[in-house]
Amino acid sequence: MTFIPVAEITMTNAATVEVNTDLALTGTVLPDSATNWAIVWSVADAGGTGAIISGSTFRAATAGTATVKAAIAGGLTATTHMKRHLPSG
């Protein structure tokens, strides 16, 4: 079997998230034929929001903008950074 790397990861969640609300992170991987599709989520820059990710669930404690990082498990592909705005209550 030939290894096919991921060329693109796209976050499919809304751009705005409510403070103190869990958001299940979801994304798509291209090409469809990529060998590994397992997305690993992390906070690249909390931006003062207190943002955390547990597994694939995002939550932030205060308003602001946080940057979420999506990578493929095993680190054999591209990484995509996505910003999410967190409006105050």
Low-confidence stretches: none
Relative helix content = under 10%
Order of helices and strands: EEEEEEEE
State the separation between the terminal residues, measured CA to CA. 50 Å
Strand content is 35-45%
Silhouette: elongated
What can be said about the biggest beta sheet? Answer: 3 strands, antiparallel
Estimated radius of gyration:
14 Å
Strand runs, count = 8
Number of helices: 0
**What do the pLDDT scores average to?**
83
Class by alpha and beta content: mainly beta
Which strands sit side by side, in order, in the main sheet?
Answer: 2-6-5
What do you see in this structure?
This protein is mainly β and 89 residues long. It has no helices and 8 strands. It has strands spanning 8-11, 23-24, 27-30, 39-45, 52-54, 57-59, 64-72, 80-86. The protein has a 3-stranded antiparallel β-sheet, with no helix packed on it. A hairpin with a 2-residue loop joins β5 and β6. The radius of gyration is 14 Å and the shape is elongated.
SSE arrangement:
Blueprint lengths: L7 E4 L11 E2 L2 E4 L8 E7 L6 E3 L2 E3 L4 E9 L7 E7 L3
Antiparallel strand pairs: 1-3, 2-6, 4-7, 5-6, 7-8
